[in-house]
Each structure stands twice: as structure tokens, then as C-alpha cells.
Amino acid sequence: MVEPADADAKQLAERLLAGDRRALARAITLVENGDPAGWLVLRSVYPRTGATAVVGFTGPPGAGKSTLLAALTGLERAAGRSVAVLSVDPSSPASHGALLGDRIRLADHFLDDGVFIRSMASRGALGGLSEAALYALLLMDASGRDLVLLETVGVGQAEVDVATHADTVVLVLMPGAGDSIQALKAGIMEIPDVIVVNKSDHVQAEATVRELKAALALGGLRDGWQVPVLRTCATTGEGVEELRATLLDHHRDAQVSGTLAQRRRGRLRMAVLGLAALELRRRFEAAIDQDPEVEHLLEQVAARELDPASAARALLATLDARARPS
Amino acid sequence: MVEPADADAKQLAERLLAGDRRALARAITLVENGDPAGWLVLRSVYPRTGATAVVGFTGPPGAGKSTLLAALTGLERAAGRSVAVLSVDPSSPASHGALLGDRIRLADHFLDDGVFIRSMASRGALGGLSEAALYALLLMDASGRDLVLLETVGVGQAEVDVATHADTVVLVLMPGAGDSIQALKAGIMEIPDVIVVNKSDHVQAEATVRELKAALALGGLRDGWQVPVLRTCATTGEGVEELRATLLDHHRDAQVSGTLAQRRRGRLRMAVLGLAALELRRRFEAAIDQDPEVEHLLEQVAARELDPASAARALLATLDARARPS
User: Fold this and answer.
1) pLDDT tens digits, A131-188
2) Residue among B90, B280, B304 minimizing CB distance to A47
3) pLDDT number for residue A219
4) 3-class secondary structure for chain A?
């Protein structure tokens, strides 16, 4: 017998697979909220994922990522390809409106059915945003979009985590962005697949490109691919066609070399282990909830009689002893 | 018999308790790196913690938190009290130098033995920064500082997590910061204990104070304490003495009402449970490492035959079946 929730999810999944924008939006909301119906939809559509390229854009605020994304989307649309855009802001606590400024830059595409735009911001959920972004990307993929663009704000660890969901990672810098170059050199920033110096009309653009190429000379290969440094001017569209061609090149190269399959395997692995770990954490919290022995340990810590690490060890020993048959 | 590592940690702990700055710096580095010796030091000094007030400063970049911190530190020093400052930047991937700009603002105090300054940035460690900050604060507390100041950069969830380590939370805003007021109104931002409108010479300062008071009129009580809205000008020192008095007031109030003990209990609880959960995660990762059954599940996910959530469930069922005696 099919449960009503199952039937609803099935119908939503079918509409999503048929390319229905509203079904896609609804399904993303469901997985974002951790709604079981979202998992049902994802389960249904999952076999139909994997065909779409996901290109991620990262880099410091103000580098012009959103404008570049809008320009690239324009070219894709002119070529008759449909696009989905996911904007993720891990540093913002608000769920809606946080990326309004960025979305406005995509306003040209708001009325175009061939472009689906979605924002996501941190909701403080345990292990939440990066996973929610991955599921949203899978749903976008299943909905038959020809290209999925992922944009992250900032260059912190949370952004790096999200950027790893992309098949191709583009680092967008502005001329004179010395900090980013230092970070690349120091190996703090993971090497992207493509580097773009945007605002190429800036007086320092040429020097920045040169500096980046010098920084990459020591380690510009990523998975056998020579990381190119491109110049764009997103506002005039200069260099964006070349960027588009480079993205296609990288996707083909990654397909042939096996890098694509390997990266996807890696992130799906992380997703599965993350979900399992989350469930273990839930079980752990249920096991200790209002447990008198655990409360006693915590009281000792509050009274400064027992330090936190020793208390954690004692807590686990208590749980282990209970799990073992006596 | 005492192990050599134990003896070293014991000695370090003794120097720390005696107020030795270098011992404090070394101990923080050890806990930051997850070094077992760090835990030994923390265990030794833990009974001596709890006497120091921890005041946290949060708010958007550019509001002048660091300048305010420096001004407050100056007043504390003039009153003969010793200070420790912990600056935490969850959005920065670099460990050192990330907060150099802020530290420069504290440069007046660099040569003063009565002021200990430390920066911490995200190192991408699993569940790392917030915990590392808590242990650093405990070590600063144990070292006999009269006041510990905690500064976070930004207003994201990671910053909020860190800010909860403080006994008193000060939200520093600049005049005209409409977004922050909106966030307060919408209940997105947790209500702080004290709100400071810095740069009070700004033309919009008065209006911002009025707007904040109006926003708080509906819910300006926090744990029975009426949240005050103060005006400061950190560069001239105006209003900083009043802020200092307010911080002392809040600490006394929280002590009398029991809020202080309750908050500290809450965060120590989180620390213990976080450490236990981290160890469970480590065990989980060891249990699945190179396990053929788990690898088979992951292969099915990569082949799009099994969705991530179903695979996670199957994985846990496998582990559960093994743990149970057959």
C-alpha cells in the first residue's frame, strides 16, 4: 500500500523530473527543512542525477562573482541551454533576503523560465548548510537543467566545504587582491580549477594576473589539469565567452581523466557518512537525555571538580558499560 | 610513577597558575592543536577556574569592536586590573595574522605585561574553533587575569556560538546599522546583554539608539536583566567608563540572580557533550574505515543505484548488527 505522503512525494518527484520549476523549488525547501518528504523525493529522482555539470564560484566579497554569474548565464541562455543557480551564504544567519543584493544582479533572468535561482543561508543547523546545498544541487541536476551554477560568499572554511560540491571550482578575484594570492601561495586556499581576475579594466589587473601565474608556477597542476588564469570584465562581458569555453574544457578533461567521477564519489561518500554521523549524534543525545548518571557528571564539571575532557571520557564509559551485556 | 609528559604538563600548569604569560600562550597552543598535554594542563588548572568574568564583544565588521576593546582595556589597566583578550575569527581560514589589523589597534598594550592578547581563526577542524575558544578562555581564567575579553568578527552562526562562551555579551553596532536592528527585531539575532552604539559622533547615532530602544521595548529583558543601549565613541573614550560600569553591574546582577551559574553550566555541558560526540565520531570513522560492506554501499551511491539517505540507514544497520551479539 502506498502511504499518502509517499504518493505526494512521488507526484512531486515526477513534476520535478519533467522540469517543473515550482516542484523543484518545493523539493529544495523540503530537503532544506529536513522534511522526510524531501528524502522521499530525493530517493525517487536520485537515479536520474549525474548528467549535469556543476560549476562553483568562490572568492572574496566584491570580486564580482554575481555579475560574472549573470553574464555567464546570459551566454548559456543564448546558446539555448537552461541554467540553475544556487547562492549559498554560510556567514549569514538569515534564511531569506540575505543574498538579495546578489539576486538583484540576476534580475535580468528573473522572468526567464530557463533560469532557476535559489538562495540558501546558514540556519545554524547541526552539520546543515553544506549538506542542504548538496541535496539542492542534486535536485537541480535531476530537474534536467543543462548547467548548475553554485555561488558562495566569502573565503572561509564553510565556503570551501560548499565549493567542494562543484565539478569545477572557479576562484574569482579582483585586481590587487594580495591577500588571496598570499593565501594561494601559502597553500591555505585549496587550488581551484580555474582562476578569474574580474574587473580586467582595473589598472592592476595585468600585474595581478602575472602574480597569480607566478604563484601557480610552483603548483599550478590540479588533478593533471593546468589551472588557467583568465581575465574578465563581467559588466561589459569581456572574457566571459572564453571562461565559458574553459569551463567546458575542464568538464571534458575531468570526464576523460576520471577526476569527475572521483570527485563526485568523494562528495557522495561525505554525504552518506555525514548523514550516518548525524543519526549517531541523535541517538547519543537521546541516550543521555535526563540520565541521572550523566547529570551527576555534568554537575561535577559545573562545580569545577571534574574537567570537561575527563567527564566526556567517563560519560562514554558509562554508555559503553550499558551497551555491553553484563 | 609520573610520566615525563605528565611532569611537563604539571610544570606548565604551575607556571600558568602563577600568572606566567608564556606558559599561558603555550598551553593555549597545546589545546588549540588538540595535543594531549593540553588536556593534562587543563585538567590540572580546571579547579582554579570560575573566578574571572568573561565579556564577549560581537557585531558587524567595522563597528569598532577592537577600538572599543582597546579603550576598555586601558580603563581596566588604569584601575590596576589585568586583562586577557581573545580575538576569534571563524570566517578566516588562516591561523595567524588574520586579525593583525585588529591586533594593531591593541598595540598600545603590547608591551604591557598586564595585558595578554591572543588571536584564533578557523582551522577547519571538525567541531573545532568554538571548543578551542572555550578552553583558551578557561586557561586565561585560571591564569589569574581579572577580566577576560572575547572578540568575534562578524554576525554569523559561528560567531554566535563563540559569543555564548561569554558571561556578558555586548553587541557593538555602528549608527545606521539597519540590518542589525532588523535582525534583532525579527528575533534572528539572539538578544545580547548590552548593546553599544559606537561612533556616537555620527549624525545617525541618536536615531539608531532610539530605534534600538523601540525594538527592545517588546522584548528587552534577558534573564530578568533590562538590556541597556549605550553610546560610545571608542576613539575619544566617550562613554567607555559608563560601559565598564554597566559590565560590572551585569556581572553582579547575573551572579545574584543565578544567571551566571546557569549559563556557565550550560556551556560546560555543551563542551562535555561535544567532546563525547567527537570521540563517537572518531570511533565511527574507525569502524567503517576500509570496510568492504560499507565500500559496497558507497559504490552503489556513486553508481546512482542507492540514494545517500538510504545508504546511511543501511550503513548504520550494518554496524548495529555487528555490535549486537548474534
Assistant:
1) 889 999 999 999 999 999 999 876 566 677 777 899 999 989 888 866 666 666 655 5
2) B304
3) 65
4) CCCHHHHHHHHHHHHHHCCCHHHHHHHHHHHHCCCHHHHHHHHHHHHHCCCCEEEEEEECCCCCHHHHHHHHHHHHHHCCCCEEEEEEECCCCCCCCCCHHHHHHCHHHCCCCCEEEEEEECCCCCCCHHHHHHHHHHHHHHCCCCEEEEEECECCHHHHHHHCCCCEEEEEECCCCHHHHHHHHCCCCCCCCEEEECCCCCCCHHHHHHHHHHHHHCCCEECCEECCEEECECCCCECHHHHHHHHHHHHHHHHHHCHHHHHHHHHHHHHHHHHHHHHHHHHHHHHHCCCHHHHHHHHHHHCCCCCHHHHHHHHHHHHHHHHCCC
Tens of pLDDT along chain B (326 residues) come to 456 678 889 999 999 999 999 999 999 999 888 888 998 999 999 999 999 999 999 887 778 888 899 999 999 999 999 999 998 876 554 444 444 444 545 666 767 788 998 988 765 444 477 888 899 999 999 999 999 999 987 656 667 777 789 999 998 988 886 666 666 665 556 678 999 999 888 888 888 898 888 877 766 777 788 899 999 999 899 999 999 999 999 999 999 999 999 999 999 998 899 889 888 888 898 988 889 999 999 999 999 999 999 999 999 999 888 877 65
Minimum-distance CB partner of A268 among B94, B284, B308: B308
In this prediction, what percent of chain A has a pLDDT beyond 90?
49
| A127 pLDDT above the threshold of 80 | no
Say how many CA atoms lie within 13 Å of B225 toward its Cβ: 26
Query: What letter represents residue A278's amino acid?
Result: L
Cell of B128: 573545532
How many angstroms away from the CA of A128 is the closest CA of chain B?
A: 12
Query: CA A205 to CA A227: how far, in whole Å?
Result: 18
8 Å CB contact of A91 and B288: no
Q: Specify the amino acid at residue A193.
A: D
Instruction: Say if the Cβ atoms of B269 and A316 lie within 8 Å.
Output: no
Say if the Cβ atoms of A307 and B43 lie within 8 Å.
yes
Per-residue pLDDT at B3: 60
The dihedral over CA atoms of A238, A243, A248, A250, expressed in degrees to the nearest 10, equals: 160
Query: Which of A92, A131, A272, A296 to probe the B interface (max B CBs under 10 A)?
Result: A272
pLDDT-derived band at A66, boundaries 50, 70, 90? confident
Distance CA A76, CA B300 (A): 33
What distance in Å separates the CA atoms of residue B90 and residue A156, rounded to the nearest whole number?
8
Cα(B306)–Cα(B229) distance, integer angstroms: 55
Take residue B61 and report the three cell numbers written for it.
565588521
Contact B124, A157 (CB under 8 A): yes
Nearest to B309 by CA among A165, A267, A268, A262: A268
Q: Sketch out chain A's domains with CATH numbers.
A: 1-48 (no CATH), 50-272 (3.40.50.300), 290-323 (no CATH)
Q: Which three cell numbers stand for residue A285?
A: 543525545
Note whether A93 contacts B308, CB cutoff 8 Å: no
**What residues in B contact A101, CB-CB < 8 Å?**
none
pTM, 2 dp = 0.69
Query: Residue B195 in 3-state DSSP?
Result: strand
The answer to whether the CB atoms of A92 and B312 lie below 8 A apart is: no
CA A182 remoteness from chain centre: 24
